[in-house]
Structures are given as C-alpha cells and as structure tokens.
Amino acid sequence: QVQLVESGGGLVQTGGSLRLSCAASGRTFSNYAMGWFRQAPGKEREFVAVISRSAAITSYVDSVKGRFTISRDNAKNTVYLEMNTLKPEDTAIYFCAAARTLGLPTSGRVYDYWGQGTQVTVSS
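The structure corresponding to this sequence follows.
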C-alpha cells in the first residue's frame, strides 16, 4: 500500500502561483511513476502531468505546458506541482497518484494509488 497526501492548494488570483506537494508513505516511492490529475466541477478527471520514477522524464497536458512543472524528491518521498500564471480554468481539485510502471501513464486507470485531493481555486 502507498498512502498519498496532497497539500498546498488554496485561493489565488489570475496570474498567481501555487506549489502543490504530495507526500507518500508505504512502499518504495522510487518504484512509482507519479502523476497529477485534476477534476473541475461537472467535468471528468483530467491528466495534468506525470514524472518518471527517476525524475528524468516528464509529460504534460497541452493546456499547462510552459506554466506547470512537475518534480520529485525521492529522498523525501514527495512529488511537487509548481503552477504559475494560473487561470480560472485551472480551478479544480488536484489529485496525485502513483503507478508502478516504467512508463509515463496519462490514463488514470493505470494508477494504483490516489490521494484525497487538494482544492485549487483561481479567481478572475
């Protein structure tokens, strides 16, 4: 089992920044690719970003490229999502997830463990 706890969400104005953190406990963190997903009210869950086990490779949904950065610290069992130039359409609950894979999965169905989520609200 892997337990994931997100933090760092909040209310921010358009153009602002937030840094989300996801702390993992349980199994060996470096065995898992880590992803961030989000779900806005009335919408389906959406892939945001993923980072490989070694942190060497990342992938993003087009709508956040150049604004969001995913990173991880395997010594601290933590994955981060730095979000800059935030827009109202970024408003959602953000979830981190862990997938025991060598790849960079963008489908939520591949992920084995999920956090409870943290709310991000961007005001216009």
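The radius of gyration is 13 Å.
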